[in-house]
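thought: fold this chain, then report.
action: predict
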Amino acid sequence: MDQRISIGFSCAVLAIVTAQGCIESSCEEKRTCGGSPAPVEAAGIGGNLGLLPRATGGRAGSVSFGEGGKDDATGGAMAEAGSGGDDAEPAMGGGGSGGEPSTPAGGEPGIETDACTPSPCAHGTCAPLGASFECACEAGYSGDLCDKNIDDCTPNPCRNGGRCDDGIDEYSCVCPGQYTGTNCELPRFEIIEPTLPVYRTFMQGASADGRTVAGLFILPDQESERPFVWKDGVLDMLAIPEGFTNAWVDVVSGDGTTLFGALGYRDTEASSQWRYLPARWRDGKPSLMPIPDTWSSAAVFASSRDGSVAVGRTYVGAKSAAIVWSGGPATFLELDSTESYANGVSADGRVLVGMLSRSGKGYAFQWRDGQLELLSLPPASDSCGPNGVSADGATTFGACWLTEGPKMVNLLWANGGITQIEPPSPNLLQNPEIQLDVVSASGEAAAGYARDVSVEGEYLELPIVWTREQGMRWMVPILEEQGVDLSSHSWLPPAGASGISDDGKIVVGNVLDKNQVVRGFIARLP
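observation:
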């Protein structure tokens, strides 16, 4: 009786499988399902058949049934087979007397294979897709397994004969000496040439990163002056408000957002004399900087990094005075001096530097949070004047005129002490007088000129650059070592440097061309 009941239940289960598309000849015979052979089952007496889970990536293994198993025993799990197998249909199994389901080699019962363990992606993230996987490659790599470095040098991005060295999602250009820039697109020495006819071009200043420079053109009538800004290789003329006919730029803020200069017009009530008023251009839009009506003129000499504070000089009658703009009209610095000016300001606008005159002697000063401090004079000095201040206000740059020895020395004032800046070596001039009169926004670099005073009445000047890291250097030999041909240029006044970037690698200024006409330049030093 028990045997008949058990066999009848097994056939009922097989009938269900048959309804799903299986073909059978008898309960004990071999079946096929979907074209793939199913496992062979050997049923013992008294055992029930169980349904097994579907395996991934392999065929189901054979399951044996022993004798004397319990009615409610569950058959063995379908084995995980090797790669590339077809999914098998659920297998039937039954329990024998105390027997465990057999597990063929190829996997643990009931665990699916993870195709991403270990990850086959060399430089990427693996995502399982059933029995397969997909690689999401890191930047710079390609291929099914992310094992191919993308050639960033094809096509060659380096211009002017530059060699491209490939990296991982990057490249670097090895440029000929006369060129620089990411893609060798920038000449080491570039003359700024406007599209309109001009008589002369003057470069006046540069931002901290050297990407923004500004200056002025003198038009062919030799009277009209027009300001311009050069940013990232694009030159734009600056607007002039109605009523003004001339303008120029003197100062570029450290962040390049603000330009300072002057707007001029002919004063018909004063015998048609030219009058110039301080002006500011922010985002290319001009505006007058407010000054009291009693002041005849004023000029900006330096600004804070963001352009919110500017310093300079004004004349009240025959007396000059140091002034500051900070969110309103210009005000005097209370210096108790017959002559003074301010020509340096820290990045935050809290520290101003300048020169004041007392008893016929010039003193460099700092104006810190409204308090005046005179800087020490070196021995045998006649007068001293600053040229700029570091971004943090801790170091003042300047020069002193001496009564003994060299006529002029360049100095740094810091922490109550004085350090002399040594001249470049070797010396290219017989008797040089060196002045660093342009200081970067950070105070980490400066530029100026060296003048040979050995021959009276004749001038020979060479541009000078200085950084804290490299000291003072001659600019022209640096460029010539890179293959720049400067044989058709000369460095007579008003040639020289007028602006420098924080890192000292971009210098702007003026040079005389072969026709002895002033042209503005941008020099990019290695």
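thought: worth noting. Residues 311 and 324 are 4 Å apart (CA to CA).
final: tokens above.
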